[in-house]
Amino acid sequence: MTTQKSSAHDKAAVPDIVIGRLPIYLRTLTIFRNSGKDVTSSQELGEYLGISSAQIRKDLSHFGEFGKQGTGYNVAYLCKQLEKILKVDCVWPVLLVGAGHLGHALASYEGFENRGFRITGVFDSSQEKVGGQIGNLVVQPMDELNDFVSRQRCQIAIIAVPAEAAQNVANLLIKVGVKSILCYAPITLTLPPHVQVEYIDPVIHFQHMTFYLSKGCIDS
Amino acid sequence: MTTQKSSAHDKAAVPDIVIGRLPIYLRTLTIFRNSGKDVTSSQELGEYLGISSAQIRKDLSHFGEFGKQGTGYNVAYLCKQLEKILKVDCVWPVLLVGAGHLGHALASYEGFENRGFRITGVFDSSQEKVGGQIGNLVVQPMDELNDFVSRQRCQIAIIAVPAEAAQNVANLLIKVGVKSILCYAPITLTLPPHVQVEYIDPVIHFQHMTFYLSKGCIDS
DNA sequence: CCTTGTGAATATGTTCACAGCA
DNA sequence: TGCTGTGAACATATTCACAAGG
Question: What pLDDT, in 10s, does the model give residues B139-152?
Answer without folding.
Answer: 999 999 999 999 99
